[in-house]
Amino acid sequence: MSRASRILIAAVVAGLPAVFPALAKTPAKDGQTPGASKRKSPPVPAKKLFKAVKVGAAMKPASIGYYTRGCLAGAEQLAANGSTWQAMRLSRNRHWGHPITISVIKRLSADAKKYDGWPGLLVGDISMPRGGPMPPSHASHQVGLDADIWLTPMPNRRLSRRERERLSATFMLTSDQLSVNREVWTSAHVRLIKRVASYREVERVLVHPAIKKELCAKAGKDRRWLGKVRPVRGHNYHFHIRLRCPPGQAGCRFQKPVIGNDGCGKELDRWYKWLHARLKPRPKRPQTKPRVRRKPRPPITLADMPAACRKVLAADGRLVVPKPHPALRPSAAKK
Fold first, then answer.
1. Nearest alpha-carbon partner for 59 in 293, 332, 315, 278
2. What does pLDDT average to over the chain?
3. Is 56-278+300-328 in CATH node 3.30.1380.10?
4. Which of 6, 108, 186, 256 is the most exposed place for a label (fewest CB within 10 A)?
5. d(CA 15, CA 12)
6. pLDDT tens digits, residue range 133-174?
């Protein structure tokens, strides 16, 4: 970690406005005592703090908090290259995960090649070195238990670093996004997703509704795995693996497990109702009032996260963990 990054993290975690005096005070107006007019400096978004740390925390592996609000201790980094996988977008430094997640990815890559005719995995985002909010496109991927796997098979050669930054994953749907594109979708895709959904550690597999529909049609007699495959928007270039909380980690908050049928009935029908509605042109309505834009949601700050994430963020052996800022004391901090 660079010296500048350590200073930034130490200052924000400590809540020391003295490090940033320009943000702590405003110039005095005429007739006022200098320093009497003050304003609080805006809190630094947690995503900036976690992005600044380039290596994992040397701690016992632990997923802390929830998939969309938490952090990761003792992360393991997926190697850029394996015999049955290649990591993509290396510049992002997002191939860190809980050791169980890394193990599942490696196992899937080997099993899929051996049993399913899949040449190897192209691995997208997992988590940052210490988890946390990931700018700009992900809400989850914060505790090292989520991973994106491209639906593009790994080529039979090692990709260059430049190719890994520029190569685009294959869009798997027709132009109306109501079904899979038969020119690129194969039975091997079905076998790959079935395999990962069958793993005990996997809680959910997220795919586009059109992909879910295709899986429902081609699943055959064994449909036990289909309930884990959940339709969501996007996910038309890749599928998203979500693991359950590892055993014995009380600080990891479980997502409600998938219980019930295969998800190929009413739930999928609702998604298709929404997809068809998107294709219809919207009637133009006369604008009588100026459009009011919604204010963007405030970014997640360290005060919004589990208290243990402060230790994870500072645990590199070179930062002195300061006393919590009043906003981060147990009465205010999220447990």
1. 315
2. 85
3. yes
4. 256
5. 5
6. 987 777 899 999 999 999 999 999 999 999 999 999 999 999
Q: Which two tokens stand for residue 306?
A: 């589990």
- Which pLDDT score, from 0 to 100, does residue 307 have? 94
22 DSSP 8-state letter: H
- Please name the amino acid found at residue 212: K
| Stretch 205-216: mean pLDDT | 97
Predicted TM-score (pTM) of this structure: 0.81
Domain regions of the chain by residue span: 56-278+300-328
Give the 3-state DSSP-derived string for the chain, with helices as H, strands as E and coil as C: CCHHHHHHHHHHHHCCHHHCHHHHECCCCCCCCCCCCECCCCCCCHHHHHHHCCCCCCCCCEEEEECCEEEEECCEECCCEECCEEECCHHHCCEEECHHHHHHHHHHHHHHHHHCCCCCEEECCCECCCCCCCCCCCCCCCCCCEEEEECCCCCCCCCCHHHHHHCCCCCCECCCCCCECCCCCCHHHHHHHHHHHHCCCEEEEEECHHHHHHHHHHCCCCCHHHHHEEECCCCCCEEEEEECCCCCCCCECCCCCCCCCCCCCHHHHHHHHHHHHHHCCCCCCCCCCCCCCCCCCCCCCHHHCECHHHHHHHCCCCCCCCCCCHHHCCCCCEC
27 has pLDDT over 70: no
| Burial track 32-43 (b if 16+ CB lie within 10 A, e otherwise) | eeeeeeeeebeb
How many angstroms from the chain centroid is the CA of residue 9? Answer: 22
Q: Tell me if 156 sits within 8 A of 79, measured CB to CB.
A: no
Neighbours of 24 (CB within 10 A): 15
Please report which helix (H) or strand (E) contains residue 68, including its range: none
